[in-house]
Amino acid sequence: MDKEWEIRLGGTGGQGLITGGIILAEAAILDGKVAVQSQSYGPESRGGSSKAEVIISNDEIDYMKVKDADLLLVMSPEAAKKYKDEVKEDAIIIVDTTYVKDFEATKGKVYEVKISHLARHEAGRELVANIVALAVIVGVTNVVSRSALEQAVLSRIPKGTEELNKKAMAVGFKAIEEVLNAA
Amino acid sequence: MDKEWEIRLGGTGGQGLITGGIILAEAAILDGKVAVQSQSYGPESRGGSSKAEVIISNDEIDYMKVKDADLLLVMSPEAAKKYKDEVKEDAIIIVDTTYVKDFEATKGKVYEVKISHLARHEAGRELVANIVALAVIVGVTNVVSRSALEQAVLSRIPKGTEELNKKAMAVGFKAIEEVLNAA
Amino acid sequence: MLAHLEKYFRTERLPHIWCPGCANGIIVKSLVEAIDKAGLDQDKTVIVSGIGCSSRAPGYLNFNTLHTTHGRAIAFATGVKLANPELNVIVVTGDGDGTSIGGNHLIHGARRNIDLTVLLFNNSIYGMTGGQYSPMSPQGAKATTSPYGNIERPFDICNLVTASGASYVARGNSYHTSQLTNLIYQGLQNKGFSFIEAISTCPVYFGRKNKLGRPADMLKMQKEFCISKEAAEKMSAEEKAGKVITGVLHYAELPEYTEQYQKIVDKCQRR
Amino acid sequence: MLAHLEKYFRTERLPHIWCPGCANGIIVKSLVEAIDKAGLDQDKTVIVSGIGCSSRAPGYLNFNTLHTTHGRAIAFATGVKLANPELNVIVVTGDGDGTSIGGNHLIHGARRNIDLTVLLFNNSIYGMTGGQYSPMSPQGAKATTSPYGNIERPFDICNLVTASGASYVARGNSYHTSQLTNLIYQGLQNKGFSFIEAISTCPVYFGRKNKLGRPADMLKMQKEFCISKEAAEKMSAEEKAGKVITGVLHYAELPEYTEQYQKIVDKCQRR
Amino acid sequence: MSMNAVKEQLEPVVVNLAWCKGCGICYSLCPTKVLSSNELGKSIVSEPNKCTRCKICENHCPDYAITVMGVKK
Amino acid sequence: MSMNAVKEQLEPVVVNLAWCKGCGICYSLCPTKVLSSNELGKSIVSEPNKCTRCKICENHCPDYAITVMGVKK
Amino acid sequence: MTVTDIKAKLMQGNQACAEGAIYAGINFYAGYPITPSTEIAEVLAERMPEEGGKFIQMEDEIASMAAIVGASLTGAKTMTATSGPGFSLKQENFGYGIVAETPCVVVNVQRLGPSTGGPTAPAQGDMMQARWGTHGDHPVIALCPSTVQECFDLTVKAFNLAEEFRTPVLLLLDEVIGHMRERVFVPQPGELEVVDRIKPEAGTQNYLAYQPVDSTLVPPMASFGDGYRFHVTGLLHDETGFPTNNSEVMGSLIERLHQKIERGREKIVIVEEIDIDDADVVIIAYGCVARSAQKAQKMARKKGQKVGILRLITVWPFPEEEVLRVAEKAKALIVPEMNRGQIKDVVQSAVVGKAEVYGIGNVDGEMVSPCQILAKIEEVL
Amino acid sequence: MTVTDIKAKLMQGNQACAEGAIYAGINFYAGYPITPSTEIAEVLAERMPEEGGKFIQMEDEIASMAAIVGASLTGAKTMTATSGPGFSLKQENFGYGIVAETPCVVVNVQRLGPSTGGPTAPAQGDMMQARWGTHGDHPVIALCPSTVQECFDLTVKAFNLAEEFRTPVLLLLDEVIGHMRERVFVPQPGELEVVDRIKPEAGTQNYLAYQPVDSTLVPPMASFGDGYRFHVTGLLHDETGFPTNNSEVMGSLIERLHQKIERGREKIVIVEEIDIDDADVVIIAYGCVARSAQKAQKMARKKGQKVGILRLITVWPFPEEEVLRVAEKAKALIVPEMNRGQIKDVVQSAVVGKAEVYGIGNVDGEMVSPCQILAKIEEVL
Ligand SMILES: Cc1ncc(C[n+]2csc(CCOP(=O)(O)OP(=O)(O)O)c2C)c(N)n1
Ligand SMILES: Cc1ncc(C[n+]2csc(CCOP(=O)(O)OP(=O)(O)O)c2C)c(N)n1
Ligand code: SF4
Ligand code: SF4
Ligand code: SF4
Ligand code: SF4
Ligand code: SF4
Ligand code: SF4
Ligand SMILES: [Mg+2]
Ligand SMILES: [Mg+2]
To answer: Is pTM beyond 0.90 here?
Structure first.
């Protein structure tokens, strides 16, 4: 990939989106790219909505905030509402239909995946929804290489959860392939 | 009196010189004059030397600090040393010879009175040395009227010490008269 | 709950910001029930807090509410109470807010025996900032700033407040809700400095870091380790080991600060 | 005295700034004698103070000396001690410095049981600023800010520090000098937070305002109202009324903070 | 049997799903397993007839999301 | 009797007048009235032979202005 | 009314400040002793109960600042006094008072800093701290008396501004003014304006504690106990008083806090102009140093030098227009002060190069003397 | 050494700051948690014992500041980190550190104020507080990173300056920089300069703790325990360290404290100039906003607009000369910042009317965007 990717991941606190953003950035660095990850919090540290932003580029990145995203992931209805318009015309939008029902895009191409549901029921724990989501993202975009993703995931997760997370990635890749094939 | 009086009272903490300065200023106001009183302290509130300054004038007083005094009272050797040169050529200098021995003036006219000694032995308590000193000052200079002085003294002292203080004033007036007569 | 809810809560601000399963909400319910039992006039009641998760409570309560700076609630409350002694003043604070940065105001409020009712939510952690240890974290506890286990010893805060001069000191917890309500109620009745430690939970930070299970598990633990003073009196030393004693731990009739001050005013004005 | 004087005092800075008859000088003498008895290496000993008349003491003592900000001596001392546990760290403070603005650091130092020896000069007043009441002024006492008599209740500071978690707590006074020396000495021996309240006098402000006579009279009063713990044990309640108990009031062997910390370092570095 | 009483028996416990955060306290503490969780972890009344009106659920719900009707049986 | 011993008997107590602030503690507390005050209130040794070397004066002088020679009689 | 109708009293600056507070109707004082401000507390400890008010000595300055804000919320007029070290400690809660819009008066009797510094030595070293000492963007009102009479009068003014603008107001004394004594003509009741709490109109429904009702942008303020049950927080909030994360609302609160002071400029900003019209050199001075300036100015005029004075009575918000106006006429401005040019730099920024600006900065605890100023006049003329 | 020799790591700004401290040789950290600075403490709680250093969570920010000054006196390299409310509380003891000349590093990760404000919203609202927050006249060194790499590098620099100039040094981060993650090339040991405590020469007799021995005016500093038994106080003192009331000595201490920083200007003041030479408009920016400026500047240049950047890496002492030099060439200066023009005013004062100065000031917790800057460029060109 050669273009600069502005990526926004939106959901609620506890869905692990900030970790998701970090992993994505770390994977990009492993791929030899430049990456910046930033985020926003609710009051002090808890409650409310959560947002992670990642920019991945071949060149130095000046401005670290995402304005109109090239890639948007939404995992809560609030995030969907808040961020769906802040995307580029040709953006890729990934929607976790476990929580976001009836998503109506004004711009971009939408991919609907029951991410959290798959995490809970296929991978085994909803906790890894973020990892499923990352696999979905990479499945659609190849914004980072699969090997870099795997390496980055494995270096950020608690010891003893390797299998769970590998499974989550597999579930994600599989799910998005199905969606892509169906399209 | 018509001139502006810059007065400096110097000694050690506990000699009541600040009270002395206040009484002098208050008396001046009773006389219908303008007066400013200022002072300096040791570290936070205790120890070391103590200095009170009073300016008495018929006009508004701009600058409240005394530079070269018209009238200097010194009640400790340190104060004598420190302040004896910061006087006008024709200054009046009153020295408490109880504590200040061998005072050598470079300028001004010196009046030597054993103020603290008189306070202790004639008035009855050294505590009223400042009042004795005020009477001495007024005796030499008439910087304030005797009646204003008495009124000011009586309004500043603790109840029950009226007689003691009146006596102190009398002792002071008498002592300075003797000095003046002797001169 | 419903009747109280409409009357005492700013329901339009609910649900509150606390995490799922955080016991703070349970303790606030006891507070409201105690206020109801004591029959306090809502217009004449002020609830003051500092900064922390627990200190967000006043925002949900339909009284005069004052959310101050971290640790200073008792100092603000002292101003409120002394300026207008007719107001009932309640302070809501956390273990960090009340015993760490705010420890000095706590002991001085107690010393003055000023008529405040202080309810301290003790979840053994700084919740709001994401799980650092507090002066009430147990020895050995894991927190983000004690990755190797906490080496500091926690205060026995009831003991400390008693030694500072408070007239009423009690301890309750978020499992034994009717006891807690009653302890707060008695604190509200006491004319003087009343202090109630309410053992709470922070399932998200304290619970996770220390592997204490789900929110319900943490409440069940409280049910186990908290024993009432009355029960404790009948127990042997071994039985009491590891237990935390709840109930009214100290009470003394003492002169109250604002009343003492009023005497000076009366004396001065009589002259 | 003479031998100690040259060795332990910065004699070129004497006479000190304290007013005639102020008992601070007597207490400092006991401190120096205790240090001598304990054989502390002057080069390895740091004396830390806050702000106040009593807090000027370190300036006269021939050690590493640190005169800090008002109320914060224990916090500075905590930094000194934890950064270099080989240093003996002594804190000199006043009743205002140590229990009013500095109350929080006092209770937290005690809670951590960090190895400091804290000597609190209690003259029941803010001397340095000219005689305002302090959290240790007796009820009814006159001060420039309590012209109608103090309505606040004083701390029993030994009690409070004990409740905070200190391992050694004692009270002495400026009349019974050898007892005081001994109490400080024992505090220096204790590896942990040691607290000694030394009852002092402020003849100029506290004495005058409360008509307690000359400096010597105030010392004689101390001789009367201070009774040792041992003597008190043999006295009836009536006999003890109005008396202040001196001696070692609390002692417990407890883990010391810097030693506990070292264990973490050792553990980490062994890995 | 009044309408209210009927309703109380059919619906002894009411959950306000808008406020329920799915913490699990109520359904973990309910002694008779009246309550269980839906797929989002929120509380649902699955066995209303087993309810003893002990109010443990209401008392311990941190989100004021549960109301128990009537009085303890 | 050595010179020192003689000196000690004549001068059992030495006052450093430069440091003495005249607070009166020593001469008020001295049980045998060895000490009294000069006209500035400072301490002077007026009855040296009465001194018992009890050191009450030295122990309570806040200004380190008194030294008692020899040991308690 | 002529001077003889009124009894002149010899008062200390700190005492006049305390008596001014009583005149303004103070109900509550909380403080912690510190040289050279302590007399304010001492006078009020005695006087407040006589007037039915409350005096409390808190455990420290942080608590004192907290207590006066708390008391203010019950409707009381409140004050605290301190000096540099205590002023530093009050900063956090001072900022709280600004955001929570609680009227109160904070006195700083300046001594030589930094740190413990020279506790009895005078200085004017906290001028910029007064403006910027607490974190975040905030406006500040600060008044600076030059006479003991002004200690009285400006204390009354400070209470008035606090009530009118719903904000803490600073009184910046210095040790010289605080401790000197001169005569004060104590005004009769009614003689000076006294502004009381601007409350919501009787019968107000749906009172919003942080919603302005007119162009002043100052919301009327109910008291705890009045029956409105409002919420107060130091978090950024909307007009209900409840916290928000909405950036527009947060930004507009901060903007309103500034604008309400901007709009009140005319009422707030006071300067005294002396012989400005023909002046080649204008001395810009405040506090005790203005007294030296006055003496120097008279001496210079006697020598025929065209010197004027712009005395800053209000220092914050800074009298930019007034200074610029003077700069446009005069050749040189001299700013003598007892710090290293804190206000001089602000003057510099205000005059955008329109006049040369010279400073005299004493940081040794000695008052700037008339001689120092005269010498500088010679230098720049 | 080429880039590939070094392993790039993804780090958070706060983490890079903590790791920079470790690289610089930190021995002691004391702090109190506060958003958005807490990660610095959390990383160091874990890392310090591994390195043999000490971490302590104190009871509040006042105690934290006290503890690092105390620890510094034993020879330790020390640091604390906080945000606005805590920074306000540290002010008194920060001033003590300046007067007592104790090296230490104080980090303020700025959030939206005033008061509790917006705890998770970014801001640059404490720039002037950093300069003037403590009472009395004092100099300040403050550095402002714009990248995560700089969080690392400038932390090392801050420790170095603290040691070299015997003074507390401020690191002013903002929430954006503190919380964002980007790659950091962690230098090898020896690669970055690390300055250690400048002690009295071995065998020094009659060591005077506050007597400079050379033209730097920085006295060598012994540690407690070294055998010198010196005295440290926050009172103004002479070169022995003992307090004095002598006005000359007091004044000259304050003067020396300022002069030692003045003389070190060259070592202390760092700016980055981008495309300045032909620029009509120069953006003066710092911290996270410099990143927006960089993006805007590139976009403007693409449009053919002659725009340059002066990035302030050192904010205090203020790079007056550097700014003036730019002002003499450019037509207009734009100062975008996340406050109401704090640094803009300082720029204004520095350029004495030589160039027009325009500000962009966000106080709503939103970062200044490249668009805002571009719009302003259009406006002023
Ligand atoms: C002066 C200051 N320091 C630090 C903080 C950050 N802070 C906010 S809440 C908190 C701790 C809260 O802990 P606790 O009082 O136990 O409340 P909890 O969140 O656990 O209920 C801290 C340190 C702050 N807001 N202000
Ligand atoms: C922050 C701060 N607040 C107030 C003061 C003023 N101050 C100096 S000493 C003191 C009280 C000292 O009382 P105490 O500790 O009892 O000491 P003492 O003088 O009685 O020995 C006060 C309030 C100060 N220096 N700093
Ligand atoms: S962080 Fe902890 S204390 Fe705070 S709301 Fe969440 S669970 Fe409760
Ligand atoms: S003021 Fe009191 S405490 Fe201070 S030196 Fe004098 S007598 Fe001692
Ligand atoms: S206790 Fe309350 S919030 Fe928790 S699951 Fe049950 S109803 Fe929901
Ligand atoms: S009232 Fe008791 S039995 Fe009924 S649902 Fe609640 S906990 Fe279960
Ligand atoms: S006790 Fe000491 S200072 Fe006091 S009078 Fe005696 S010798 Fe002098
Ligand atoms: S040693 Fe005893 S007897 Fe001798 S002078 Fe001193 S107090 Fe008196
Ligand atoms: Mg907590
Ligand atoms: Mg004291």
So the answer is: yes
